[in-house]
Specification:
There is one protein chain. The protein has about 350 residues and is of the alpha/beta class. The protein has helices spanning about 10, 20-25, 30-35, 35-40, 45-50, 60-75, 105-115, 135, 150-160, 205-215, 230-235, 245-250, 255-265, 275-295, 315-335, and strands spanning about 15, 20, 55-60, 80, 120-125, 140-145, 165-175, 175-180, 185-195, 220-225, 340-345, 350-355. The strands form 3 sheets. It has an 8-stranded mixed sheet with strand order 5-4-3-6-7-8-11-12, with helices on both faces. A hairpin with a 2-residue loop joins strand 7 (about 165-175) and strand 8 (about 175-180). The protein is globular, with a radius of gyration of 23 Å. The model is unreliable at about 15-20 and about 195-205 (pLDDT under 50).
C-alpha cells in the first residue's frame, strides 16, 4: 500500500506474492472493501458465513430496530421484517427507523434498513406471526422474536429446535429488557494462545521477558461445542431450591420480565401510559402470581415496577439490542463462545447480567 496508508484486506490476504482471487475470497470487490474492518475483527470465514445467513425479525419495535440495524450493517445475506401493526404513539424506541404514525412499521423499517447497506436484501411481511404455517419459518437460519405472547414464543422455539434453526427472543419494557437464546447443539471456534516452550519456563532473564511481552501473542483456532436448553425448560426451573445467596447476585429483572410478559399474555398488549392506573393495579396482582409460580417472595419484584415499564426507552433498547445482535452474529458465524442463555438488563441501575437458565 502507499506509504502512510493502512493495508487493505487484499494486502492482508496476499500469499507468497499471490493476491487471493474473488472466487477464493467468496465476496465481491465492493463487499470486501465494505466489510474490511469486520474481516479484520472476526476473520474472513466468519464474514462469509454471515453473508450466507438469513434472518427473520418478528415484531418491529425499538429493540428489534436496534438488532435490525446492527445485522444489516454486519452484512448478512437477507433480513425479513414480520410485523402487521402500524406505528403507534408509544413506539418511541425505534423512531430512528420509523417516524410516520399510522403507517406500517414493517415497511417504514425496511426502507430505512435498506439504505444502510444495499448489499443486504431487506424485505417486509405485514402478516401475523400466528397465521404463518411452520413451513414459512423453515426458510430462515435465525429467528429473532419480540412483541409476542409466551405461547407464540414457545411455538417458535420448538419449531426451531425441530429444524436446527437458531432461536432468539427479547423485549424491552421501559427501563427493563432481556433476551433469551436457544442455539440447540452449537459448534463454534475460538482463538487461544499457542503454547510454546517459553510458556513452561519458570524464570527468564528480564530482557527476554520484556521482549516476549512486547511480541504479539500467537494464537491457534480451536473448535468447541455447547448445548442450550429450550425456552420451555428454562421457564420451568425450580427457584425454590436456589440458595439465599443466589438472589443477592441475580437481579430481580427476571421476575419483573415475567410479570410484564404475563400482562401481555393476559391482555394481548403491553402496559400503557394511557391506562396507567388500572394497568398498575393489574401488574401488582400479576406480581403475586409470578412469585407463586416461581416459588419466590413477591418482595423480589419491587412495586416500583408499575412506574418504570411503559413504552420503550431508547438507551435500554440500544444496550439490549447491541448485546443481542452480537450474539446473533456469533450464532451465524460460529465465531467465539455464545452467552448461555439469558441476558437481563435493569436500566434503573444500569446493570446487566448473563444468567444461565435451566430446568
Amino acid at each position: 500500500p502507499p506509504c502512510g496508508q493502512p493495508p487493505s484486506i487484499f494486502d492482508i490476504l496476499r500469499l507468497d506474492s499471490h493476491i487471493v482471487s474473488m472466487d477464493e475470497l467468496g465476496l465481491t470487490a465492493d463487499e470486501a472493501e465494505q466489510y474490511d474492518r469486520q474481516i479484520r475483527l472476526w476473520g474472513l470465514e466468519a464474514q462469509k458465513r454471515l453473508r450466507q445467513s438469513t434472518l427473520l425479525l418478528v415484531g418491529m419495535r425499538g429493540l428489534v430496530a436496534e438488532v435490525g440495524k446492527n445485522m444489516v450493517l454486519a452484512g448478512v445475506r437477507s433480513v425479513t421484517v414480520l410485523d402487521h401493526a402500524p406505528l403507534g404513539p408509544e413506539d418511541v424506541g425505534g423512531r430512528f427507523l420509523m417516524s410516520t404514525e399510522g403507517e406500517s412499521r414493517a415497511h417504514q423499517a425496511v426502507s430505512a434498513l435498506q439504505s444502510l447497506n444495499p448489499n443486504v436484501t431487506v424485505s417486509a411481511d405485514t402478516g401475523t406471526v400466528q397465521d404463518k404455517p411452520d413451513e414459512y419459518f423453515k426458510q430462515y437460519d435465525v429467528i429473532c422474536a419480540s412483541c409476542c405472547t409466551t405461547d407464540t414464543l414457545l411455538r417458535l422455539n420448538e419449531l426451531c429446535r425441530a429444524n436446527n434453526l437458531k432461536f432468539f427472543c427479547g423485549d424491552v419494557w421501559g427501563s427493563y429488557g432481556y433476551y433469551f437464546a436457544d442455539l440447540g447443539e452449537h459448534e463454534y471456534a475460538i482463538d487461544v494462545p499457542k503454547e510454546t516452550e517459553d510458556a513452561i519456563v519458570v524464570e527468564t532473564p528480564k530482557a527476554k521477558r520484556q521482549k516476549r511481552d512486547n511480541e504479539e501473542a500467537e494464537t491457534v483456532t480451536v473448535k468447541k461445542s455447547c448445548s442450550f436448553c429450550s425456552l420451555k425448560d428454562a421457564l420451568s426451573g425450580d427457584w425454590s431450591k436456589k440458595p439465599a445467596r443466589y438472589f443477592k447476585r441475580t437481579p430481580a429483572t427476571f421476575f419483573l420480565i415475567q410479570t410484564l410478559q404475563s400482562f401481555r399474555d393476559r391482555h394481548d398488549r403491553d402496559p400503557s401510559s394511557q391506562s396507567r392506573s388500572t394497568d398498575s393495579e393489574e401488574l401488582l396482582r400479576l406480581r403475586e402470581g409470578v412469585a407463586m409460580r416461581f416459588s419466590v417472595s413477591k418482595d423480589l419484584i419491587p412495586e416500583e415496577l408499575t412506574s418504570r415499564c411503559y413504552s420503550e426507552l431508547s438507551p435500554v433498547c440500544a444496550v439490549v439490542g447491541g448485546v443481542l445482535a452480537q450474539e446473533i452474529i456469533k450464532a451465524m458465524s460460529g465465531k467465539d463462545r455464545p452467552y448461555s442463555n439469558c441476558f437481563l438488563y435493569d436500566g434503573v441501575c444500569s446493570s446487566g447480567i448473563v444468567e444461565s437458565l435451566s430446568p
